[in-house]
Amino acid sequence: MFPDHLLTLQEWDALPQQGYRWAELAEGVLEMAPGPSVGHQFALSRVRTQIGTAAHAAGYSVLPEVAVVTDSTVPAAVGQPDMCIVGTTRAASATGLLSAADVVVAVEITTVGTRRRDRMTKRSQEETARICRYGLIDMAGPCVAVEAVDPADGRYQFSDRVRGGFFALSDPFSGRVDVDALRPGGGPSFFADG
Predict the structure, then answer these.
(1) Residue 29: left if φ>0, alpha if ψ -120 to 50, beta else—which one?
(2) Distance (Å, rounded) from C-alpha 68 to C-alpha 26?
(3) What pLDDT, on the 0 to 100 scale, is given for residue 4?
(4) Is the terminal CB of the chain with fewer CB neighbours within 10 Å at N or C?
(5) Contacts of 135 (CB under 8 A, 6+ apart)
(6) pTM
């Protein structure tokens, strides 16, 4: 049952996981997102495998689908990026929700049902929350695109886009993502730094 009022952060946090697993809070309004498809989860798994070792060596953790408070005021906002890069010390000590300040990079994997929300709504929420970097892996188009976004003057600016081949990471750690391997039947699943 959906609430009949704008939720506070405390009310959202008290919701049971069952039935609300894919819920997010946008300006106090409970929003249900579609559960991830197999292709989405495949891409998420491949990205985590490809950058996990480099992230760990640099003191970061790659966390899938964690709740991040992007606005704690009323009406509150809580997003659930497909993947977050967080300092390992903070990730290990977290007992509840992460704050936007904890997240170094938020990544969304777009599919046919999430493209507009990932490209516009979630990007705007994470930009307003001042999450340093926003990555977008676009599975909805005819090919996979990876876009890294850096804040400039308080706004995100697209800094790089790759369609196929390798996407090089340089901040907050060095590594690379084999974009072609993000689709089932794609190439190898692991690449080291460089």
Answers:
(1) beta
(2) 12
(3) 87
(4) N
(5) 83, 105, 106, 107, 108, 146, 147, 148, 149
(6) 0.87
